[in-house]
């Protein structure tokens, strides 16, 4: 590929069935439809989309039945990892045609895709029945082995839970259990370009194991930016967003924060006389 490779990241769709509003407030189906339309209409259009978890709200089959045709409207390949609101078996049943996913939901839904200029490794950081994240020792060993197979391939790790403390009190109460062990694995493999995460419903970045952990904003609602230990579990309707990661073999990986929706502009900086006064 002689042009840059574009990866769009969306996260925390929280889709419900029956046209129900999430938390009685958020039209998550409408938000996802606007996101898909936006990505399809982008110029240049992303080459692939990764979805970093919380695909639906309660992990039910009827919710995945609503999600599936909406993601099928994307005009580019789409790759999924589960979040704490998801359930492995119903997710896998709904997306059996996603050949990169494991055949069985008996364990974590980890996967590898090798067919793009950036190698993709999906990691299932969920704890069934829990809110926080972890990677099992067996997953960390598998990840270490996978990364060692292609040490020259620039690689993205996609997982739901960011492996760090955010400072937003209620989101940190169930922290990533073995973040330090994951960081040691990442540090052994400098070709890990990014860890692409969700869960926190806000754009955030942190250095991690010599790489960068990027958190994607929510496709619909956002977590309130409240850096108090006692921050309550509140959300708001700030503009919905996504991340757009631009890979160029010479220039490396640049991660942009974008928003969905229509806003005034664009306006010119210059006219026939120069910079507009």
From TrEMBL:
GO molecular function term, any single one: metal ion binding
The entry's family comment says:
Belongs to the cyclic nucleotide phosphodiesterase class-III family.
Protein name from the UniProt record: Putative cAMP phosphodiesterase
Native species: Pseudomonas fluorescens
The record's EC number reads: 3.1.4.17
What InterPro entries does UniProt report for this protein, alphabetically?
Calcineurin-like_PHP, CNP_phosphodiesterase-III, GpdQ/CpdA-like, GpdQ_beta-strand, GpdQ_catalytic, Metallo-depent_PP-like
Task: Kindly list the organism's lineage.
Answer: Bacteria, Pseudomonadati, Pseudomonadota, Gammaproteobacteria, Pseudomonadales
Pfam families, A to Z? Metallophos (PF00149)
Broad class of enzyme this protein falls into: hydrolase
The answer to whether UniProt assigns keyword Cytoplasm to this entry is no
């Amino acid at each position: 590929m002689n042009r840059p490779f574009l990866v769009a990241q969306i996260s925390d769709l929280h889709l419900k069935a029956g046209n129900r509003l999430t938390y009685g407030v958020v039209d998550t189906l409408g938000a996802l439809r606007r996101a898909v339309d936006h990505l399809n209409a982008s110029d240049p259009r992303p080459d692939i989309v990764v979805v970093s978890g919380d695909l639906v709200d309660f992990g039910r089959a009827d919710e995945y039945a609503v999600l599936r045709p909406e993601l099928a409207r994307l005009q580019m390949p789409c790759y999924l990892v589960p979040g704490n609101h998801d359930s492995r078996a119903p997710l896998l049943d709904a997306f059996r045609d996603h050949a990169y996913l494991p055949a069985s939901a008996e364990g974590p839904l980890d996967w590898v895709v090798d067919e793009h200029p950036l190698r993709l490794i999906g990691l299932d950081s969920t704890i069934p029945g829990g809110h926080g994240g972890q990677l099992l020792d067996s997953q960390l060993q598998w990840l270490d082995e996978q990364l060692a197979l292609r040490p020259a391939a620039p690689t993205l790790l996609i997982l739901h839970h960011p492996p760090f403390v955010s400072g937003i009190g209620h989101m940190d109460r169930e922290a990533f259990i073995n973040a330090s062990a994951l960081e040691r694995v990442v540090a052994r493999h400098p070709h890990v370009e990014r860890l692409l995460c969700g869960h926190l419903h806000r754009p955030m970045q942190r250095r991690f194991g010599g790489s960068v952990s990027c958190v994607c904003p929510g496709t619909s609602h956002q977590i309130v930016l409240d850096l108090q230990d006692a921050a309550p579990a509140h959300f708001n309707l700030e503009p919905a967003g996504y991340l757009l990661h631009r890979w160029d073999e010479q220039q490396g990986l640049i991660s942009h924060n974008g928003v969905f929706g229509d806003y005034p502009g664009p306006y010119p900086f210059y006219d026939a006389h120069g910079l507009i006064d």
